[in-house]
Amino acid sequence: MLEAADRLKSQCQSQLELTLNLGNLGLGCCERLTEINGQFARALLTQAGTDSQSWLRGDASGFMVGTGRTVLDHWASMLACCTDFQRQVLTGLAKK
């Protein structure tokens, strides 16, 4: 009976450690995504400030190209962050 209780305790401890590790990974990913979104917002504001005069004159091409580049950079950063998170989760699950 004592052996079964020790085994159950060990399994519970292992599951709690896994849950803690996965939770920490999730929080780290959220923190990185927040940083990425902040950088994106700052880049868009900078872009709008830089190209606002050309936009008002009717020349939207520079603004569109710059904004498109900013959006693609943001998308690539978010994709890299989420891919890294998935890799870390799968690595963590494989260890248990």
What does this 3D model show about the protein?
α1 runs antiparallel to α2 (61-95). The protein is mainly alpha-helical and 96 residues long. The two termini are 25 Å apart. The longest helix has 55 residues, at 2-56. It is rod-shaped, with a radius of gyration of 23 Å. 94% of the residues lie in helices and 0% in strands.
SS summary, helix count: 2
Number of domains as seen in the coordinates: 1
The chain-level mean pLDDT equals 88
Give the % helix: over 70%
Alpha-carbon Rg, integer: 23 Å
Portion in beta strands: under 5%
Pattern of helices and strands: HH
- The end-to-end span amounts to 25 Å
Structural class: mainly alpha
**How many β-strand runs?**
0
Identify low-pLDDT runs.
none
* Outline: rod-shaped
Largest sheet: none
Explain the layout of strands and helices.
Layout (H helix, E strand, L loop, with lengths): L1 H55 L4 H35 L1
Helix pairs in contact: 1-2
Task: Name a few traits of the molecule.
96 residues; mainly alpha; 2 helices; 94% helix; 0% strand; rod-shaped
At a glance:
The protein is mainly alpha-helical and 96 residues long. It has two helices and no strands.
